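Progress note, project year one: complex with zinc ion.
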Amino acid sequence: MLVPTLTITIGHRDRVVQETSRSVIPVCGLKFLLLALVFLLLPGKSLHADDNLRIESLPGRVKQGDVCLIRTYSPVSPKSAYIEFQGERRLLAPGMQNGTYEGLIGIDLSTKPDTYEIKAIATDASGRGYSTPFFLKIGKGVFKTEKLSLPLSMVDLDAKTLERVNNEASRLTTLFQTYTDERFWKGAFIRPVEGKLSSTFGLDRIINGKRRSPHTGVDLESQAGTPVVASNAGKVVLVDDLFFSGKSVILDHGWGLYSMYLHLSEGQVKEGDRVERGDVLGRVGSTGRSTGPHLHWAIRMNQARVDPLSLLKVSEHLRE
Ligand SMILES: [Zn+2]
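Model obtained:
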């Protein structure tokens, strides 16, 4: 269902408020319009709707688990630009062409398929803000089911192990909630290891006959000992041996983007290290809950669980 969306446009001089919604305004919408009027007539910085500020997304239609590239075009050269998506601000970086800004948004695996409004806001050298809306259609992802048999000790956990697993999970949640203002990543992300894709992203997993958490990364099958490299520049924020993930390395790429390299035979970096794209982080292994040598590679973007292969694809179009 399309959520009724109200867009307020203010003329540069005459401050005319224009309603451009495609839906009939319900009573609560009218209330919102009045509130918006009051807010917009208050002194302070206001946003100017600018028809010349354009937004495009790549791909044009995305699905659950995708990474989407958002690019804004402006005839003037904005000093800065950002977008608002799902109530949060996402910074954009200058693009290849003059007047363009670009950034990435992650569509979590469980995002409800619908049409979502993205608002782009650009600011020129004098501090004047321009705003324009954009509608992004998010479709349903197609995820297969995988049946696995694992040793009982890896599935039915005793109280002590369960406590360990819960502590590790909350440590990771806190980590991914940490937003780093600095952007370390730049341009295209690379595959951390060559090798066959043995398990895709989003697989619905049935382990020993019971439905468990979906597979929120990709498995790249490779020989034990193969070097695993950093997908892009970042800071090492975790090197540890975790119950499910085994020997793990996690990179913070800045601006809410994290990459994870799991089941390693060994990590070859330490927490706090700065790495460049292509730097060796460790070696392929089969530690933790794993049935053979492979790399589980996962991406979190502002906590959204997204398909790393989708990041590879769209990031090719980013400015190096
Ligand atoms: Zn995996």
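Helices lie at 27-41, 159-177, 308-315.
The first strand starts at residue 8 and ends at 10.
No further modelling is planned for this target in the current period.
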